[in-house]
Amino acid sequence: MKEPLPILQIKKPADLLLTNGTILTLASGSKPISEGALAIVDGRIVAVGAKAGVESFFEAARTIDARGGLIMPGLINAHTHAAMSLFRGLADDLPLKTWLENHIFPAEKRWVNQEFVYWGTLLAIAEMIRSGTTTFADGYFFEEQAARAVQQSGMRAFLGQGILDFPTPDSPSPAETLKRIEALIQTHSGSSLIHPTLFPHSVYTCSPDLLRRCRDLADRYGVPLIIHLAETKSELDEVLRKYGKSPVNQMENLELLSPSLIACHCVWLTESEMDLLARRGVKVVHNPESNMKLASGVAPIPELLARGVTVGLGTDGCASNNNLDLFQEMDTAAKLDKVYRLDPTVMPSNVVLEMATLGGAKVLGLEREIGSLEVGKKADIIILDLHRPHLQPIYNIVSNLVYSATGADVRDVIIDGKLVMQDRKLLTIDEETVLQKAQDWKEKIAGSGD
Amino acid sequence: MKEPLPILQIKKPADLLLTNGTILTLASGSKPISEGALAIVDGRIVAVGAKAGVESFFEAARTIDARGGLIMPGLINAHTHAAMSLFRGLADDLPLKTWLENHIFPAEKRWVNQEFVYWGTLLAIAEMIRSGTTTFADGYFFEEQAARAVQQSGMRAFLGQGILDFPTPDSPSPAETLKRIEALIQTHSGSSLIHPTLFPHSVYTCSPDLLRRCRDLADRYGVPLIIHLAETKSELDEVLRKYGKSPVNQMENLELLSPSLIACHCVWLTESEMDLLARRGVKVVHNPESNMKLASGVAPIPELLARGVTVGLGTDGCASNNNLDLFQEMDTAAKLDKVYRLDPTVMPSNVVLEMATLGGAKVLGLEREIGSLEVGKKADIIILDLHRPHLQPIYNIVSNLVYSATGADVRDVIIDGKLVMQDRKLLTIDEETVLQKAQDWKEKIAGSGD
What we know:
homodimer, alpha/beta, Urease, subunit C, domain 1, TIM Barrel, 6-stranded mixed β-sheet, 4-stranded mixed β-sheet
C-alpha cells in the first residue's frame, strides 16, 4: 500500500487581506460572518467568508487585522454638494427665501471659483472618508476641480455639473456648460473612480428646452441626470404657476422620467406621481436631515419603497445639514418617518442600511460594482471599531449601526482596493493643509462683510 | 525723585488651569472668548476670561492646553434610564405595545438586579462622559447601585428611584420603595455629585394615593419629582378612561404640578395644559429622538418656550434612542420642529444649546451651580477638538456644535473640578472591564432564548 501523495496547496497572492473582524456583506440573504476574512486583488474582492477558508487560499502582501471590528461595505452618499462644505454654518435657522437669496446665492456668486471648489471638495472628501463614505454623487460647479480632488484622494464619485438657465459661477450660459460637461465626460471616460454627469438644478430653474438638451446629452453618453425634484412647497407652487403642471408631471411631459433620472428630495408627491415615478423606474434620493433643517417637508419614502422605487440616501450639502455623516443620516431616516406617521414599525434599521449601501449603488447604476461585499465587486470597504461603550452590547449589529454609531466609529477605509484611511489617519489627503485652507476661505468670506 | 517701588504680584494657586482654547461660557449675554483661560479651585471656577488676565492672577498645579479646542460647559442629560444601556438594540422597530410588553418589561423582570444596574449605569456613564455629558437625571431601579457607579466615576447625577403600583425588580411594594428612597436620600445628603430623588413612573402606572405620597416625601426632603407625562396617545387615552381627565389635568387635580416637578416628554398637550404647566412652574424635558423612534409624537417645545416654561434636553434610555449622545440629540431637537411646522426659523441653534446646558441645570434646580462657566459655579467643563474636517470652517461656533459636532469630538471632561477624561481616555472608569461586562450580560440575555 502506497503512502498518499502530500497535497501541496499553493496559495494565491492577494494585494490586501482583511481578517479577524465580523463581516457584514449585505449581500442578499446574508448573515454576519464572525471571524471572517476578505481578500482583494486588483481593486476587487476575490474572496469573502470564514477566516480559515479565505486564508487557506490567499496570502497577501498586506494584512489588516480587524479584530474587535466590523467589516462592511462603504456607504454611498447619493446626493450632496461637496464644495459647499466651505459654507458650513454660514447661515442657519432662516426663512428659506432669506437663506437662499440673501446668503447662499450671493455667497456662491461672489466666492465660488476653481480654487473654492477644489479645496471645498477636498474638505468634504476628508469628512466623508472619515465617516465611512466611499462613493458620493455631487452636484455643483467647476466639477473639473471636484474631479481633481476626487482623483487625488482616491474617492469614488459621480460629479454632476450644475446647469441653470442663468449664468453660473463657472459659465456664462447653459450652452457653455453643456460643452464643459461633454469635455469632462470624455476626459474621464473609462475611469473607475470618476463619473462625470449632468446636474440640471430643477424644473423651476431650467427651461423645458434646456432640460431636453440635458437629457439628450446624458443619453448620448449613457450617464444619469441628477435633479432636485419636488423638494419644497414653493417649488411646487412656482412650477404649477409656470407650466400648469406639478414638477413631476412637467418632467413626464418632457419625457425626462426614466431609469437614468436621479430625483433628489421628492417631498411633495401625490399618490399618482409616486405611481408614475415607480412606473418610469426613476431613482429617488432621500435627504431627511436637509429636508428637516430647511423645513422642506417629509418625503413619502415608505410609500415609494412599497411601490418598488429604488431609494438611496444623501446628506445634501453642508449648508443645509450641516455635516456629511451618513451614519447620523441613517439614524434620522429611520426615526423621522416613524414619528411623522406615528408608526414605530416603518423604516426599520435594515431597510435604512440598505438605502445607504446597495440602494445608493442602484441609484447610480453601479449595483454590480459596489454596495455589498461580494466576489467580483470593487473593494469599497470600511472597518468600524465596535469596542466602544456606545456600541455595546450588540444584540443586532444592524440596529447598532443605524441607531447607535456615528461616522467617528469608522477606523479604516478602503476604496477601489486602496487603503485611504488607516487608524483614522487619512493616507491620500494632506489634512492639515485642507483645514488651513478652510480657515483661510472662512476669513476671506466672513471678513468681507457680506 | 524716588524710584517707584516694584509691585510684587503674588499669584494665587489654582488646582487646574485650562488655557489657550476658545471659551464659550454660555453666561447670559456672553460672547466666545478666543485665547481664553479658566482657573479652578476646590472644584469651582475662580476665574474665566482672556488668557493674559487669568494667567497673571493664578498659577496652577496642573495646566491643560486647549489650543485648537473649545472650552464649554458640560452637557446635562435631563432624562435617561442609564442602566438600560444593557438593552441597547435588544428590540427595535416594533409596535409600542409589543416592544414594551413582549420585550422590555419581560427583560426587566427577568434580568434587572443589583449587578445589572451597577454595570449598566457604568456603561452609560462611560458613554456619557465620552460624549460630553457631565450631569444626568436617571430614572430606574436599584438606584443605590447607580449611586455606586456615579460615585466611582465622579459623575454628577440625579438618581430617580422608580416607583409603580406593582412590584418592581427591586421592591415588592411601593411602600418598600419609598422607604428605600428615603434611606438613599439620607445617605447622600449634602453630596455634591449624588442627588437621590423620586421617579414615580407615570399617571397611568401610579395610583393617585401613591403619587401624593411621592409628593409628600419629595417635599419633605426638598427633592424634585421626575415623571413621564403625556408621552403617548395611549397614555392619554388610558388616563382619560381611568380618571376622566388628561394626565396633566389629573396631576393638577392631585396638586402635583409645581416647580419641583420634572415632567418628561410632554408630547400630548392642549394649549390650556401648556398654560397650566407654565403657571405652575413645571419643568419639562424634551426627548426628541425617543419620541421619534417610539413614534410617540412631536412635543410642542416652541410653544412651551414661548410661555416661559423651562425646558431641558434628554436622550431617554438606550432602548429607545439608541445612544446617549446629547450632541446628536441637539441636532435632532433643532431640526424636528422645523420640519414638523414647515418653519426653518423655530428652534435655532442657540436655543437648543441652552436647552442642553443651562436649561437642564434649571430643570434640576442647579442653575446657580452648573450649566454655564461663571466664577463661583462648579467646574463641569468639556473641551472639544475643533481641528477636524467636519467642524471647519467656523462661521458660528454654536451652529457647528449643534448641527455638525457629535460627542466623539469631546477630548477632555472635567466634573466637579476633577479631570475624568483626558485625550479621550477615561480616568475614573475601567473601560475594558465595563465593555467585557456588557458583553457578558448580552450573552446571558440573548442566550436565554427570551
